[in-house]
Design goal:
By secondary structure, the protein is of the alpha/beta class. The protein is 33% helix and 23% strand. It is globular, with a radius of gyration of 17 Å. The termini are far apart. This is Bifunctional 2-polyprenyl-6-hydroxyphenol methylase/3-demethylubiquinol 3-O-methyltransferase UbiG.
């Protein structure tokens, strides 16, 4: 059975120690679909649907194929306990996950080992790990938590191969997101208190500018919306959350 591995490194500019500590404290409950990360478990299939279509369109692969990432490397930044890394590995990718909290990468590696998946996990600051470049780079619900968003965008771009694909998702900074993602979601326990700071949310226009300054062109954003009768789903409504592709400009 393959082993997931963890390598250590120090942190610096883009990591907020308080944010890392907040998410690290949740590490043991990441894989509980009814626990503190329940919202991420509901969000993951929606993100994966967008990601699979983006992969097929970018590389022109077989839409019926079960391993569209075969022969390609993938980097998930802000990987938590591996909720996205494991599906990427099952899609055939050679996957590396990076997270600011070592508690998360330890749990991620143990879970991957139990699932028989060969995934490399590394805690610390992305810019200090010397990882090289990847065909696919993902950062889901991460940029709103970093200290220097422009530096983070540059780090992501530095790790993308020529002709590679990047996919990011993040909450939009709107009145609707403040009311629902921060106020209501934390009040009812859908997400742990202190998870979101509305002032740090990034609008699509701001994200496009951050990526442009990093040498990347952002694709058309797709909303991740919620309705009582549908739950979380891809939508043209960007008011809560959105997901985008980016490529070298």
């Amino acid at each position: 059975m393959p082993d997931a591995t963890v390598t250590t490194a120090t942190s610096s500019a883009t990591i907020r120690p308080g944010e890392a500590a907040h998410f690290g404290a949740l590490a043991d409950r990441w894989w509980d679909p009814s626990g503190s990360s329940a919202m991420l478990h509901r969000l993951n299939p929606v993100r994966l649907a967008f990601l699979r279509e983006a992969i097929d369109m970018h590389w022109g692969g077989d839409v019926e194929g079960v391993k569209p990432l075969a022969g390609r490397s993938a980097l998930d930044v802000g990987c938590g306990a591996g909720l996205l890394c494991e599906p990427l590995a099952r899609l055939g990718g050679e996957v590396t996950g990076v997270d600011a909290a070592p508690e998360n990468t330890a749990v991620a590696a143990a879970h991957a080992d139990g699932a028989g998946l060969d995934i490399r996990y590394m805690p610390g600051e992305l810019g200090q790990l010397g990882l090289g470049r990847f065909d696919l780079v993902t950062a889901m619900e991460v940029i709103e938590h970093v200290a220097d968003k422009q530096a983070f965008a540059v780090q992501l771009a530095t790790h993308l191969t020529d002709g590679g694909l990047m996919v990011l998702s993040t909450p939009n900074r709107t009145l609707a997101s403040r009311a629902l993602l921060v106020g209501a979601a934390e009040a009812i326990g859908a997400v742990p208190r202190g998870t979101h700071h509305w002032d740090d949310f990034v609008t699509p226009g701001e994200l496009a500018d951050l990526l442009a300054h990093a040498g990347l062109a952002m694709g058309e954003p797709k909303g991740i919306a919620w309705r009582p009768d549908r739950g979380l789903h891809l939508s043209d409504d960007l008011s809560l959350n959105y997901i985008v592709t980016a490529r070298a400009a």
